[in-house]
Design a protein that fits this description.
By secondary structure, the protein is mainly α. It is built from 12 helices and no strands. The longest helix has 28 residues.
Length: 327
């Protein structure tokens, strides 16, 4: 599951002022915090995105290996619970509940349900299909949203390429793994809902919470997702509690999949233009292919590579309706 905010989809609030267009004065932060901030500021912004790309699919690949010991839905629950616990300790996101109105609470609840469902479907899919195939199908949703938000010839052409690429990826395995593709396309639909709901939260910040960021909002949604997923996932996850190494493994899956990528995405977006970040998203299907090959020994066929290449080009071509301007 991709936990990335996707620019260039035509949904951005026109009244939002991008922080990367404002000259910044380095803050004087004493102690360890200041040293960490200084180190992060010296790193190239692309390094944050590349870190996100690696961990975005390293987590699921580690999950696939854990499937040999813990049931798929159990691993999905461990991922969600580990991420929720990390955000809870780090950010205390429940503070949003005291400030949020009924409309915001509904969106948080819906986002939590979507996260629980989407993560579970993603893991059910990668249990049956190559990681690269599921990742490429997931990105079909981003191209669909781009075409819906800005009906330009370029976006329609990108959508055509993406559909063709997904067809190449699915046509060979559809007969042998029909359920895997049901889960993969279900995850794709969930990812589109995630983008839409995430955008709604980002553009309607909770009043009186200026110190709480999008990370806090995701953290609250992840806590809700953990509650939603627990009735289904806690029993399949039970064997992990009897084997400390499996439990640590599951926690690592959650941190790699849902914490590190999201934080590094925010660090990248703070210093990259919208257009650059959108273009770099095209690297993610390629990252899924490489990690699937190296970690899981999933060797793609030439047909697979052609389909993935078409999806990569489609993601790179997708375009927002408005030009990206930085001053």
């Amino acid at each position: 599951m991709c936990t990335i905010y996707l620019p260039g989809l035509g949904f951005e609030n026109k009244n939002v002022v991008r922080t990367d267009s404002i000259p910044r004065t380095p803050a004087r932060e004493p102690g360890t915090t200041g040293r960490i901030a200084g180190t992060l500021n010296r790193l190239p912004p692309a390094s944050f995105f590349l870190t996100s790309a690696v961990f975005h699919y390293l987590g699921p690949s580690l999950a696939v290996l854990l499937f040999a010991h813990v049931a798929v839905l159990g691993v999905a629950w461990l991922r969600i619970a580990a991420a929720a616990l990390t955000f809870a300790i780090w950010r205390r996101p429940w503070r949003l509940l005291a400030k949020a109105d009924a409309s915001a609470l509904r969106v948080f609840l819906l986002l939590g349900v979507v996260l629980a469902t989407m993560n579970s479907l993603f893991y059910l899919a990668i249990d049956r299909l190559p990681l690269a195939t599921v990742g490429a199908i997931e990105f079909l949703g981003t191209v669909v949203l781009a075409a819906a938000g800005a009906r330009t010839r370029r976006n329609l052409f990108a959508l055509t390429l993406a559909i063709t690429g997904v067809f190449l990826l699915t046509s060979v395995r559809l007969v042998s793994q029909p359920l895997g593709f049901v889960f993969a396309f279900g995850n794709c639909a969930g990812f589109m809902l995630y983008v839409i709901l995430g955008h709604r939260i980002a553009n309607r910040p909770v009043q009186g919470t200026s110190t709480m960021s999008g990370i806090d909002q995701l953290g609250l949604a992840m806590l809700i997702a953990c509650v939603v997923a627990t009735p289904v996932g806690i029993v399949p996850a039970a064997p992990a509690f009897a084997h400390p190494s499996w439990l640590v493994w599951g926690i690592g899956v959650g941190v790699c999949s849902s914490v590190i990528p999201y934080v590094t995405d925010h660090l990248a977006m703070a210093r990259l233009s919208r257009a650059t970040f959108a273009l770099m998203l095209a690297l993610l299907p390629a990252a899924a292919t490489v990690i699937g090959l190296v970690v899981l020994r999933q060797v793609p066929t030439m047909r697979d590579l052609a389909g993935i290449a078409l999806v990569i080009v489609a993601v790179a071509l997708q375009q927002d309706r408005r030009p990206d301007r930085l001053t």
